[in-house]
Write a structure and sequence with these properties.
membrane, mainly alpha, 1 helix, 96% helix, transmembrane helix, transmembrane, rod-shaped, 47 residues
Length: 47
């Protein structure tokens, strides 16, 4: 159990730093796009 935890922590920093920086701007654009698309779909569906 202790060996598995150490192996997971070693693999995290490599792809976590890139993922955190990339997610910062990517998630914002993705969420805004979904809100606009869903907003238009709801608006068209209601009318």
């Amino acid at each position: 159990m202790r060996h598995s935890s150490h192996h997971e922590e070693r693999h995290k920093p490599g792809g976590f730093l890139i993922g955190k920086e990339f997610s910062g701007s990517f998630v914002k654009i993705f969420i805004i796009s979904i809100i606009i698309i869903f907003g238009l779909a709801y608006f068209l569906g209601w009318i």
